[in-house]
């Protein structure tokens, strides 16, 4: 696993030290959520682009695809 270094203000570091025990786990969790958000936004943009192309997707097919995507996680 790679290591990174970040700089925080003393005030923020003191706050984090009061709230959490594992800084690395917090940062990893935040970055994973950010990554997922970026992927979700890219998928939403792709869906908008496809909708604009009017490729003949039926509303029923689109609902089924969305349902499958939501179930997958």
Describe this structure in words.
The protein is mainly alpha-helical and 73 residues long. It has helices at residues 10-19, 23-53, 59-72. 0% of the residues are buried.
Give the overall average pLDDT.
89
Morphology:
elongated
Which stretches are low in confidence, meaning pLDDT under 50 for 5 or more residues running? none
The N- and C-terminal alpha carbons lie at a distance of 25 Å
Secondary structure tally, helices: 3
Calculate Rg over CA atoms. Answer: 20 Å
Helix content: over 70%
What is this structure's SSE topology?
Blueprint: H1 10-19, H2 23-53, H3 59-72
What's the gist of this structure?
With 73 residues, the chain is mostly helical.
Task: Spell out the key features of this protein.
elongated, 3 helices, 73 residues
């Amino acid at each position: 696993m790679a290591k990174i270094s970040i700089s925080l203000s003393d005030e923020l570091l003191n706050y984090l030290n009061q709230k959490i025990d594992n800084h690395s786990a917090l940062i990893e969790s935040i970055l994973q959520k950010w990554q997922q958000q970026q992927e979700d936004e890219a998928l939403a943009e792709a869906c908008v682009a496809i909708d604009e192309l009017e490729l003949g997707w039926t509303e029923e097919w689109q609902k089924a695809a969305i349902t499958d995507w939501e179930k997958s996680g």
